[in-house]
């Protein structure tokens, strides 16, 4: 009876671990430990396959790993890569027939002949294999090593099978979270790079150099062998283009073949099996393109070739490249005369002042013991970072922080829209998750028109109870400082969520924690951790965590001052290329 209770209790505990964590590799050891608390084989091991490739399996060791793709990098000391043919026949049977296989006696079962020496050396007599199945594919397997003294019942088998299902779920959650992180990073990179390329355009007055930078970055972000940007001039009679990468590949010609059948499409990708019927060219194995459009007229193309596999995410990246490239060129052409008379500088200064007015309330008393303060410094004149603190009632406060991708007047326009929607929804007493859900629905069409998006994080904090309800739209996780027997730095890593403006029907979840358990909670935007030095190294999250950990007892002003100094020393610059915005919910300093 006690064992039945133990099984139920541990399954519940493992379920909580899986649903609360975005990273299987941070919890895998604890899952196995809880499983072995109930059943008692000699040991259990987890093996994984990569991208449904059964040539090799990867034995996951006890060291914590970050993400599934990093698990399989060459020379990784935290995994063991094993030729799957070296495993005995019964493990192949379990994997390919998707069933549990129990070899009760290694020394009597012919399927286990090849592992008898190992079994004798390791001291086990039997082995049971549970396939890890997700989306009807075997993504790995868990094996339990049984000694002569172990006596597994059917209930034990059912228990391990349930644990295997939860492990499969955790791995899938990790994969999805990694995909979201990767997409957000690529989208950020796309818009931020175009912002830098646009600065070069204004500085050098060279369209050719601008197109060169765009094609170079597009090649990198889509992992392509070569890429091209084509602009039509003089009513489509002449063309300006720039190709990066392998210039022996005739992308221009290949593009001409595929767009004939894609008149109604803005963009499309062709992977190897799809491309053969269009192009008879051994140099081109895959292709992706997107139109450059002004209103409904195509004024050019961006295209790339020979990635291993193009995806819908790559189309999203190219759509951003196309709209932002066209916008940058249009603004440049329309503002030449303005720049000559230095009028744009004045316009930017005016808009910068408007932005500061939007974020005029930079601090608020949260309770007798805590304060909320944020610091903001836009890059150049205008940035896309936005923070708003709204007092809901005597005890509740809403904290909203967002990062609109890109800079300039366009990002300021979206900041103003976000502020308006936020104020309305907060005063309607919407919950944190519904505020993001409704905000995304209201603003999606405007964001989608120019292929922009914004990451955001909202929290509704109650000073009486300490209850903090959080919802996230692709924003960085907060940092929390706890003080018990020692100082603990927590990542408040709730559901990542998609940025505002990426998916129209996105629904945002809510998560809770107690703010009173923390000495300090810090929310920030990417301008801090992505600030880079001359070598291209980023300031990074670890340095920010260490700085906050070492200074959390100081005033917020002192922490911010130290952060700015560290950034100046690290980058070698007294001003940043991206916005700097950081917010603290902190115990007051006596």
Explain what the structure shows:
The chain has 590 residues and is an alpha+beta fold. The protein is built from 16 helices and 22 strands. A 6-stranded antiparallel sheet has the order 3-2-1-6-5-4, sandwiched between helices. The longest helix has 51 residues, at 154-204.
**Number of DSSP E strands:** 22
Proportion of helical residues: 40-55%
Task: Work out the radius of gyration.
Answer: 28 Å
Average predicted confidence as pLDDT = 79
Notable characteristics:
alpha+beta; six-stranded antiparallel sheet; 16 helices; 590 residues
Task: Please specify the SSE layout and strand pairing.
Layout: H1 2-20, H2 24-38, E1 43-50, E2 53-60, H3 68-71, E3 79-83, H4 89-96, E4 101-103, H5 116-122, E5 126-134, E6 137-146, H6 154-204, H7 207-221, E7 226-233, E8 238-245, H8 251-258, E9 267-270, H9 272-275, E10 287-294, E11 297-305, H10 312-340, H11 343-358, E12 363-365, E13 370-377, E14 385-391, E15 396-404, H12 409-427, H13 432-449, E16 454-462, E17 467-473, E18 478-483, E19 487-492, E20 511-514, E21 520-524, H14 526-529, H15 541-551, H16 556-571, E22 580-587
Helix pairs in contact: 1-2, 1-6, 2-6, 6-7, 6-10, 7-10, 11-12, 12-13, 15-16
């Amino acid at each position: 009876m006690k064992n039945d209770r133990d099984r139920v209790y541990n399954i519940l505990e493992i379920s909580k671990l899986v649903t609360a964590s975005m990273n299987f590799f941070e919890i895998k050891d604890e899952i196995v430990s809880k499983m072995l608390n109930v059943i008692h084989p000699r040991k259990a091991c987890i093996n994984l396959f990569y991208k449904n490739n059964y040539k090799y399996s990867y034995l996951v060791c006890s060291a914590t790993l970050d993400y599934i793709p990093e698990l399989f990098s060459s020379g990784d000391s935290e995994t063991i890569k094993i030729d799957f043919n070296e495993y005995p026949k019964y493990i192949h049977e379990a994997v390919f027939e998707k069933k549990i296989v129990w070899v009760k006696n290694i020394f009597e079962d012919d399927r286990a002949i090849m592992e008898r020496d190992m079994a004798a050396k390791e001291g086990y007599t039997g082995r049971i294999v549970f396939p890890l199945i997700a989306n009807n594919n075997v993504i790995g397997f868990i094996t339990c090593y049984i000694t002569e003294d172990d006596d597994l019942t059917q209930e034990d088998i059912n228990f391990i099978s349930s644990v295997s299902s939860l492990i499969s779920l955790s791995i899938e959650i990790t994969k999805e979270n990694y995909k979201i992180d990767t997409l957000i990073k690529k989208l950020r990179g796309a818009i931020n790079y175009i912002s830098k390329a646009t600065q070069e355009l204004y500085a050098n007055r060279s369209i050719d150099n601008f197109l060169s930078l765009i094609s170079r970055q597009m090649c990198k972000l889509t992992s392509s062998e070569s890429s091209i940007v084509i602009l039509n001039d003089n009513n489509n009679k002449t063309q300006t283009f720039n190709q990066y990468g392998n210039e022996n590949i005739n992308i221009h010609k290949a593009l001409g073949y595929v767009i004939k059948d894609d008149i109604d499409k803005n963009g499309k990708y062709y992977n190897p099996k799809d491309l053969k019927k269009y192009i008879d060219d051994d140099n081109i194995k895959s292709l992706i393109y997107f139109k450059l459009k002004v209103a409904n007229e195509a004024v050019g193309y961006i295209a790339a070739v020979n990635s291993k596999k193009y995806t819908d995410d790559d189309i999203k990246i190219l759509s951003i490249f196309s709209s932002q490239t066209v916008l940058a060129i249009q603004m440049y052409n329309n503002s030449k005369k303005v720049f000559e008379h230095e009028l744009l500088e004045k316009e930017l200064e005016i808009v910068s002042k408007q932005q500061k007015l939007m974020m005029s309330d930079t601090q608020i008393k949260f309770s007798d013991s805590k304060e909320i303060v944020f610091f903001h410094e836009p890059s150049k004149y205008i940035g896309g970072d936005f923070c708003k603190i709204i007092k809901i009632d005597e005890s509740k406060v809403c904290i909203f922080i967002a990062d609109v991708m890109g800079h300039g007047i366009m990002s300021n326009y979206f900041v103003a829209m976000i502020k308006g929607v936020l104020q309305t929804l907060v005063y309607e007493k919407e919950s944190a998750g519904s505020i993001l859900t409704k905000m995304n629905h209201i603003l999606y069409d405007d964001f989608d028109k120019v292929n922009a998006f914004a990451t955001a994080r909202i929290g509704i904090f109650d000073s009486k109870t300490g209850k903090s309800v959080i919802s996230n739209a692709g924003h960085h996780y907060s940092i929390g400082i706890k003080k018990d027997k020692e100082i603990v730095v927590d990542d408040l890593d709730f559901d990542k969520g998609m940025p505002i403006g990426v998916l129209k029907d996105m629904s945002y979840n809510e998560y809770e924690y107690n703010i009173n358990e923390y000495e300090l909670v810090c929310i920030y935007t990417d301008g801090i951790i992505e600030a880079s030095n001359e070598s291209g190294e980023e300031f990074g999250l670890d340095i920010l965590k260490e700085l906050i950990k070492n200074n959390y007892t100081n005033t917020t002003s002192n922490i911010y001052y130290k952060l700015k100094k560290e950034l100046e020393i690290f980058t070698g610059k007294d001003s940043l290329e991206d916005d700097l915005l950081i917010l603290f919910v902190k115990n007051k300093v006596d």
